[in-house]
Amino acid sequence: MPSVAVKLYSVFFKFLLKHRLQNRIQTSSQHSDSFGITTRPEEVVAAANPSFADGVATKDIHIDPLASLSIRIFLPESALNAPESRSKPRTRSIPEPQPRSAHLDSITRRKSYGPPLLEERRSNSFGGGSGVECLNLMTEGAYLGYSPPSVAQGERRRLPVVLQFHGGGWVSGGSDSVANDIFCRRIAELCDVIVIAVGYRLAPENRYPAAFEDGVKVLNWLAKQANLAECSRSMSGGRSGGHGGGSGGGEFKKSDAHKHIVGSFGASVVEPWLAAHGDPSRCVLLGASCGANIADYVARKAVEGGKLLDPVKVVAQVLMYPFFIGSVPTRSEIKLANSYFYDKAMCMLAWKLFLPEGEFSLDHPSANPLVPGRGPPLKLMPPTLTVVAEHDWMRDRAIAYSEELRKVNVDAPVLEYKDAVHEFATLDVLLKSPQAQSKFRRLSCGH
């Protein structure tokens, strides 16, 4: 059974959550904002740290000018090692979280690329810079972050890319929240991957399908990044060398100028961390709670997109205690309806805030993974690891979905954690629980 501290905190958590959800339901008709929000004002967030001070560098990027959709990239220090040096990174302490007010000065920078620094332009041109400076030492605006040196592409480590979708019942949480920051840092360092935490738009300001569409937008953005990086490398690679005089020389100069313009444009929009160290052909989708619903939706869209997403390939997905539900209750939905933290009553309120008014249904395609006609065919889905908790009322439906995948020969194992509750590995108060530590150990071992 969960500890006494977990039980007491669960009572307090549910009381506070119920109060917030009811308030939002009462005012939801007034909340309609196409731009949306990705983090609540009451959420305690962790500032981005681009300098590897704790073993993982992070940066925030706003990727949609028409909406608040943003991402936080987590780059492990192991990416700086040469390809032949694959020693396991050292475990480092996580910095203390800061209140939201402590870094309001960074919000404007968080939501924009900003003008690239001179050193950044040089080192991001993939062949046009000296590669001596690896840190941008900017006195005004203080980026002070890692910038990949301009070295031969084969000398860089290429790490898998994990798209991570946070939980929070559609209405809370964030890619930069303290709990999500700690979770993603651990994943990046222990699993030796680049993590892209998706700050999707929250309900009720943006109801279904906003969060799902944001997940697909980030996957398409990743594909665009990979193609722009390749274009930039190709253009930069053709700048060196020369031709003889005469008309041929004039033609070369014109072509070279064109390549320089195209190459400079590519370098200005390519995210250097991903271009230098990311391997989009090894993309994994990772979702927790309602984020698992988004991950599963994005996986289906990736299957439907096929080669249109090249070179991005979704090779697997990890669904951690997914937020699945249905009109016909399962055994766990009956027996554990009043379970810890997110019980059935709380989740019903969350779904009413997320689904469009007048379309509430427990068999909505976003809620029930086993409704008929929910394409594509399950046999085309990527390998799917499902993580469930013993005391989570949603566990049986997640297991049933995994069983359906196995019936069509999809590799779909299930990991069940005893004495664990919903969000046991991602909720701030539970991050140091034995179950959460076991989860991270399994991930670091490749299970």
Automatic annotation (TrEMBL):
Gene Ontology molecular function: any one: hydrolase activity
Domain Alpha/beta hydrolase fold-3: 162-425
Transmembrane segments: none
Pfam families (UniProt xref): Abhydrolase_3
InterPro entries: AB_hydrolase_3, AB_hydrolase_fold, Carboxylest/Gibb_receptor
Chain segments carrying region Disordered: 82-125
UniProt record similarity statement: Belongs to the 'GDXG' lipolytic enzyme family.
The protein, known as: Probable carboxylesterase 11 isoform X2
Species annotation: Vigna radiata var. radiata (Mung bean)
Taxonomic path: Eukaryota, Viridiplantae, Streptophyta, Embryophyta, Tracheophyta
